[in-house]
Amino acid sequence: RDRAAIVAKYDKGREEGAEIDPWEDADFFVYKVTDRYGFLHKEPLPKRTELEAKALLIERSREIKWLKMLKNWDKSLLSDKLRNRVYKGIPNSLRSQAWSQILRLDKIKLNKEGFYDQAKLLARRTSPDIRQIDLDVNRTYRNHIMFRDRYGIKQQALFHVLATYSMYNTEVGYCQGMSGIAALLLMYFNEEDAFWALSCLLSDRMHGMHGLFKPGFPKLLRLQEHHEKICKKLLTKLHKHLKKIEVDARIYSMKWFLQCFLDRLPFSLTLRVWDAFIFDGDRVPIAMAFLVIKLYKKQLSKMSFDEAMSHLQTMENHNFNDDEIMEMLQATMLELRRNGLDHPGPSQ
Amino acid sequence: MDEVHTTKVVLLGRTGSGKTSLIVRYISSVFSENVKPTIGAAFSKKTVQLIHGEERKQVVLAIWDTAGDERYESMAPLYYRNSSAAIICFDLADRQSYNKVDFWVKELVEKVEQNCKLYICGTKTDLLAEYGGPLKRAVGPTEVMAYAKKLNAKFVETSSKSNYGIDDLFKLVAADFAGFTLCEAPPIEDSLRLQEPNQTDVNEKSSCCF
After folding, report:
1. Of B2, B6, B11, B155, which sees the most CB atoms within 10 A?
2. CA distance B142 to chain A (A)
3. Which residues of A touch B (CB under 8 A)?
4. pTM of the model
């Protein structure tokens, strides 16, 4: 009879009327203020809305499809479904696996056993950027549960990934802005994989963030110039207005391109844009930047410099959810391609 | 209607000298434990009301916070262009941070065409032993004052943590811009009084960064 009662309790789960002793449910404050991505909030989170609950259910059903795709990755790569599924959002629980497969980390790590650890030892002794890295680790995502504790495990990892990378790629070394990217990678990867993923994003042809961070920021300037060109051609009137009020792409789009919209969008949407960025590279921030301007076309056309600047930062006052934005992003990428503007082309 | 003037103010200084914290304290009246490294620059604004006898003026400060990382120095002209005031920050407990002040002074003197007033701001007084903190002052005030005098700059000390000197600094900037003279003595009835816009002005404050 005991057995039946126990089994019945599990069948009932946490539905209304379930008998759960208060002591059985840990009631730590940190549980209530931590969101699903690990960010700590000041107030306990509100109860999940119906919409959020529904989105989670959809995400669960996608996990099954993703597990299948990840298992047969080489075949998945050839399928048309993959890109669509990436833009629909990689289930958060499988994000590390998916990012790792898309970036082909296993291939990169081949024959590199022990390399990271050795490079790390060297970096601890000789990296010229230690001071700046230390300063920035101390102020990167301190509102995230992984990076909250000073000198905690993930802060140690962040410090070492950045220090090692500064020695691995001496032309870039360390530049402010990289700590946020490395921290994002560390939310999904262990230390060594985060290092190789960072290396991939900087040096492969599709992402090429190397040129974004190296002295003089040549690629940033190229992307900004290209963004101006897109706006001038496809939003001529608005572009004129922005020129008139001296709202310059060099000023407002810097963080968009350098960190692919990190901290510029709600985190759930940032991850979606990063899914796409990891999959499709440069074309994603280029299209996203244009989409933002398009989204606010009406408002921006009436704004002063101050208003426009504030507006482009908070990116509030639009009525779209993450899914809708991602659909618009895909459509924008097509629009740019049709106009031959999806990419500025290789550097000279 | 009061006269309204807008002026552009730029903050410069070595990485970690407390530029962003200073602005967050001024704009949002809090000391944030979660200030991220500034990438590129950040824009915010706040209105200061100046009252001098019958005369009233409003000065909107359009404030640019900049990145301290040396690699971003090449971008700085975008932000100090057309500024009427530059606040150059240094950490009072860090000699290297102070040494960087001269770099920015020279850059501004050389490259800025308009009249740009200089303010040298020693930050983090709360960390100094003389204020009960753990650290030693790395630069004596006489040294900084002599340097500032030579440049015709003003020297102030602030703490974003304890909110020391912050409002006064920006009021000073606004008053200098508007041609008001600040009264050293405690304000008396018809001398200069400076006051912050009250809560009804909240939507005039905004802050953002790029």
Report:
1. B11
2. 29
3. 132, 135-136, 139-140, 142-143, 175-177, 179-180, 213, 215-217, 248, 250-256, 258-259, 263, 306, 309-310, 312-314
4. 0.90
